[in-house]
Design brief:
single chain; mainly alpha; 2 strands
């Protein structure tokens, strides 16, 4: 583990025996990254290998319960706002307010995460998030709720998330260590998506039968589980991380660190575009359910459940993946945008519904690939600040994109709004893929001869047989 100041120290290796000869994580500041991330020969992990660690099992169990409540609240909150206002733009405003604090203060949350004990911070943030759910439950069940109440609670939840998100991201490495980090990141996503299967279904039943207030109440109470898990952890089994002492310029230090690493900055930019314009599903799915197919909350829950099923499959596949390639990230972003456009133009209800599962699977692949490759490439002393920047652009871009996408959806229709999000995602993938290829000294090779790989990404200078063989080995597409 590095004990340097952070900006000047080398990134931590992927594990105690890793070599990083062909890895984007081995890129020195200012040098060109390869479109791959991961050691040259990493043994395939078991899908659930990180669950052997007791502290992580407690964490994952608590998160499963609270994530289920979170998804119930998301469905209930979106449908409540649509019921109160009849406006997709209002749903977009609610989403924007929830993520606006991440855009404004996200980097400061990373500084806090690097500076203080993450387990203690998580105890405070999880308690506060539970209180926001209970507050919204009281307002709704008492019949006093108004749309501005929902806006206020969404903004308060966003303020807590500023600290909670980088803490949770960085705390994973303290529980499992570097060797299991990729697997644990993927299982976190699988955990979240599993809850996304259950939460919307339960929320749909509760909303239809009793109203949104009961979903908010369950969410508030669900945070008892992660709080109990944090209290039951054995602190002696946590991996020691040197906390960054308080000093001036730590925020600028984090930004300088990222700006000097092409293997960090360009994936962050890509997920920023996709998070801002391509992940506005509360707006699109409520609009398709309500305005295109003239259905109720049950159909909205069905749409979310189908996306969650695809996302869960994507997360489990990612948990078995030995490496997190940047090339996979770019390719997944291209496919993601194309699938969104196809869904927007779907001729029938069931074609639209069927496309939601692959959209969820590819979207999850983008998230996990970017998250794990960035974490593995980052010095532990800088991880909180780097992950806060990642979350700021991925989640914090929503306040910029959601109102715009909501306005487009209201003005031109749900199909046009969905097409726009997919087109922007595809465009960003193309541009950033070309940038990464140029910086990494790569080119696309097309060979139509029989018995040869027809399309491959290879170094620009690959005239010799040795360099060609090396390129095919190091840059082969992920399975």
């Amino acid at each position: 583990m590095s004990t340097g100041s952070g900006a000047d120290s080398a990134p931590a290796p992927n594990s105690h025996d890793d070599t990083v000869s062909d890895d984007a994580t081995a890129t020195a500041p200012g040098s060109a990254p390869a479109l791959a991330a991961g050691p040259a020969a990493t043994p395939r992990q078991g899908t659930f290998s990180s669950l052997r660690i007791r502290n992580y099992r407690l964490f994952a169990t608590g998160q499963m319960v609270s994530n289920t409540g979170t998804w119930m609240q998301r469905i209930a909150q979106d449908w409540l706002v649509l019921s109160l206002t009849g406006s997709s733009a209002a749903v977009g405003i609610t989403t924007a307010l929830q993520f606006l604090p991440m855009l404004l203060f996200g980097l400061y949350g990373g500084v806090i995460a690097d500076r203080f004990a993450k387990r203690t911070l998580l105890f405070l943030t999880q308690s506060a998030m539970g209180l926001t759910g209970l507050a919204l439950a009281v307002l709704t069940l008492s019949g006093q709720v108004q749309v501005w109440h929902v806006y206020l609670v969404a903004f308060a939840l966003g303020m807590v998330t500023v600290v909670d998100n980088p803490c949770r991201q960085a705390f994973v490495s303290e529980m499992v260590g570097q060797d299991e980090l990729r697997n644990a990141v993927s299982l976190n996503s699988a955990n979240f998506q599993s809850a996304r299967l259950v939460g919307p279904a339960v929320a749909g039943v509760l909303i239809t039968a009793f109203g949104s207030g009961w979903a908010f109440l369950f969410n508030g109470l669900s945070f008892i589980a992660p709080i109990a898990g944090l209290l039951m952890m054995r602190t002696s089994e946590l991996h020691e991380v040197v906390r960054v002492p308080r000093s001036k310029g730590q925020l600028r230090e984090g930004l300088r660190y990222v700006s000097g690493r092409p293997d960090l900055i360009w994936p962050i930019v890509l997920v920023g575009f996709i998070g801002t314009f391509g992940f506005n599903f509360p707006i699109w799915l409520t609009a398709f359910a309500h305005h295109v197919y003239h259905q109720g909350a049950g159909t909205y829950s069905l749409f979310n459940g189908l996306m969650a099923a695809g996302s869960l499959i994507g997360a489990l596949l990612a948990a078995r993946r030995a490496r997190s390639r940047l090339r996979l990230l770019v390719g997944a972003a291209l496919v993601f945008g194309a699938l969104e456009i196809a869904a927007a133009l779907a001729p029938s209800f069931w074609v639209f519904a069927a496309l939601l599962a692959p959209i969820g699977m590819v979207g999850l692949t983008i998230n996990v690939t970017a998250n794990s490759s960035i974490q593995m490439a980052t010095d532990p002393l800088m991880r909180g600040r780097v992950m806060s920047l990642f979350m700021m652009v991925f989640v914090g871009g929503t306040p910029l994109g959601a109102p715009v996408v909501g306005w487009v959806t209201d003005t031109f229709g749900a199909r046009t709004g969905f097409v726009a999000g997919g087109a922007i995602s595809m465009g960003a993938a193309v541009v950033i893929g070309l940038i990464l290829a140029r910086v990494g000294g790569l080119r696309l090779r097309v060979d139509l001869r029989r018995g040869h790989r027809h399309i491959a990404v290879v170094p620009r200078d690959c005239g010799t047989a040795a360099s060609t063989a090396s390129a095919e080995k190091d840059l082969a597409p992920a399975a």
